[in-house]
Amino acid sequence: MKKLHLLRTHLINAVPALARDPERLLTFVEEGSIEFRRGPNLTHEYQFTAQLVLTDFSADLDTLIVPLLQWLAEYQPDADPAQAISFEAEILSHKSVDVALRVKLTERVLAKVDCDAGRIKVDHVLARFEATGCPAPRWQLLIRDSAADADYTLAAEWDNAHGG
């Protein structure tokens, strides 16, 4: 489940609260299954719901959701927008919450059997779908609480995982 590791790394790099304390991001897999087809090869696909739990989160939720959506656009663009992400939150105080996100992911694995050599070669296919027309090497997330506010506030910034 290499995608979950990539997602975790992306969020830790992009979300300032997680960059300061990555142990506050807990990751689990729930509702996992493996789809395969009968045949000479052992190619299969992991299908699972990743659960991302952020403990004692006091930043603006957009500092988490916007980088998550950016990552999904690149690594899981075929996700159903209405079902790809769900969440729950427990209000801890006026300033902090525990947030549990559920993100549906798939990961294809090519496993080719070579009977003559007695080998099985496995490749994880982590297809990337570059966002066209927006190759910025660095991103800044600017948030304005309401249209009445004159200025945006810098809430987060991160490097493009692939340098543009």
Automatic annotation (TrEMBL):
It comes from the Bacteria. This is Phage tail protein. The lineage of its organism: Bacteria, Pseudomonadati, Pseudomonadota, Gammaproteobacteria, Oceanospirillales.
